[in-house]
Amino acid sequence: MTELLSGILNFDKRSISRSISLIENDLHKGLSLLEKIYPYTGKAYTIGITGPPGAGKSTITNSLATLLAKNKYKIGIIAVDPTSPFTGGALLGDRIRMTELSSLENIYIRSMATRGSLGGLSKSVYEASLIIDAAGADFIIVETVGVGQSELDIAETADTTVVVLVPESGDSVQAMKAGLMEIADIFILNKSDREGADAFVTTLKNIISLKPKSEHNWDTPIIKTIATKDIGIDKLTDEIFHHSKYLQESGILEKKRKTHIKRKVCELVAEKLRVYFWDEDKLRYLDSKLEDLLLRKDNPYHLVETLLEIFRNKTHIP
Amino acid sequence: MTELLSGILNFDKRSISRSISLIENDLHKGLSLLEKIYPYTGKAYTIGITGPPGAGKSTITNSLATLLAKNKYKIGIIAVDPTSPFTGGALLGDRIRMTELSSLENIYIRSMATRGSLGGLSKSVYEASLIIDAAGADFIIVETVGVGQSELDIAETADTTVVVLVPESGDSVQAMKAGLMEIADIFILNKSDREGADAFVTTLKNIISLKPKSEHNWDTPIIKTIATKDIGIDKLTDEIFHHSKYLQESGILEKKRKTHIKRKVCELVAEKLRVYFWDEDKLRYLDSKLEDLLLRKDNPYHLVETLLEIFRNKTHIP
Predict the structure, then answer these.
(1) A251 and chain B in contact, CB less than 8 A
(2) What is the per-residue pLDDT across B243-259, written as a single tens digit (0 to 9) for each?
């Protein structure tokens, strides 16, 4: 454990990987490690990169990481690949390029799956960020396909959320309005040499202009990029620094991080309560009542009350 | 309440709508209604229709419902519209057509949003199905955009899950393999007059052939449809009846429904425990410790243990 800890603190990639695997496989076993590394965390700045499949998120992530690494920053990348049927995940080519990137000394890359663990995305991603943070990363880039719940999770986790779109995304922009406004700190229009790019920027600007100014004073920028040619990535870096400065000076960063950690504590409590509640007796009782539920001799709402009654009474008996 | 109940039992659409709204707004207030209607439920057969945006799910749902309604069946449709940024939701035209459909006496349509309520999709959808079930619907069609978690939820909720694809979906089919196999009881290739349809069917067949035969004996059919012209919908209806018969005779339907209701009870317990745990004292304590967490004077894992300790001790004092 001490070896793992000192490895992490020295940005040793094998130690980081082993620690993340430890936690992914069994959070409970990794708890003492997490408690040990926690004091070393809090220095990394987290950038969330999200958007629809095929928008070029991986390419953007790679270019951004390369540019930051050239400027002597240490970078951690967490690429969240959903194994879900319709999201597709990153193309093989992107992942190969990522592997090349990971040969750079100050870039650490980790690919994580969403599916399988209950509500697993945000949980493992958070713990993985803590480890990479403790390792001394200046920036942690979390890349995730923006579908369903995951882009909301990422927006709550990241300090700066970058939403990557392409001119073809224009069709559905009307339907996106509310959601986009809520999560995007920076918009990227990637593949901006394609037809319809300018019209799309106009549409986006109109949507941004609808944002109530009262809340805060950040003007969501729209950056045109052609990630495959590295065009626009310097502008993106500038805007991330700009946003980071804005968050810090306005006090919003602290508020954001407090909200995030509060949510994490509530999640951890819920998981503990689940394990605490569902002892063998209650699980057996539930199983014995399923037949009654199907036959409509009992109803789930009444059964839940009964289970809670058992729980309350038991906890009164030392 | 009695009025609402008798309205529901008479398939009175206003009563159904009012009851669903009641539960959506405040599950707690709707509990006694749910307990009252539960004995009348269990007769409806649930069909989940899912697939990527733009595949034509709404059109399929409309045609299927119309065909079933012509055959004197009572139908409930729950259209789950994500307000999430990238999923888009159904096009306006589809919803207008749905409104026309709802003028039919034996079709009830309800649109529900995914976002906003924590894990709200499956919860409200389940309660809405119960109400529609009690109202006497023979079939409940739950239509949801298949992205992220929602299509997994739907596969666990529905008796028969129909996955709608289009020839253009072919590109990502390799990435989808595992997930698709897991959830699809019936595949639809919609817009099957488009280029690439036959090649896509071949690809799908190959994927289906990889399915381990040991598990069960259902051969996942692939149905070619052109939903806008009502082509293939009769075949779909046949296959749904076919699958329903298979599930009943094999005993899988009962197992599926038991698993589903067990999961619902666990969800309800988790929600109750959350409310039970987070009393004012503990919430205040958590808030008072957030600063320490940010300053790394305490860590979230230790804080969780402290909170649980408070919880355990309190429950010992009557």
Answers:
(1) no
(2) 999 999 999 999 999 99
> CATH for B34-253, among 3.40.50.11690, 3.30.110.40, 3.90.600.10, 3.40.50.300?
3.40.50.300
How many helices (H) and strands (E) are present in chain A, helices listed first? 13, 7
**pLDDT band at residue B88 under the 50/70/90 scheme:** very low
Residue spans of the domains in chain A: they are 38-116+136-250, 278-316
A34–chain B nearest CA distance, Å? 8
Whether the pLDDT of residue B93 is over 80: the answer is no
State the virtual CA torsion across B141, B144, B148, B152 in degrees, nearest 10: 0
pLDDT over threshold 90, residue A87: no
Of B172, B294, B307, the CB nearest to A88: B172
Tell me if B148 and A152 make a contact (CB, 8 A cut-off).
no
| Phi and psi torsions of A180, nearest 5° | -60, -45
Does the beta carbon of A232 lie under 8 angstroms from any beta carbon of chain B?
A: no
CATH topology of domain A38-116+136-250: Rossmann fold (3.40.50)
- CA distances (Å), B152 to each of A59, B129, B254, in order? 29, 17, 19
pLDDT number for residue B157 = 84
Residue B25's pLDDT band (boundaries 50, 70, 90)? confident
Helix (H, G, I), strand (E, B) or coil at A78: strand
> Worst-scoring range by mean pLDDT, A36-50, A119-133, A166-180, B117-131?
A166-180
Q: Where are the alpha helices (DSSP H) in chain B?
A: 2-9, 13-25, 27-37, 57-70, 92-101, 120-134, 150-157, 173-183, 197-209, 233-250, 252-277, 280-294, 300-316
Q: What is the DSSP letter of A118?
A: T
pLDDT, residue B119, reads 36
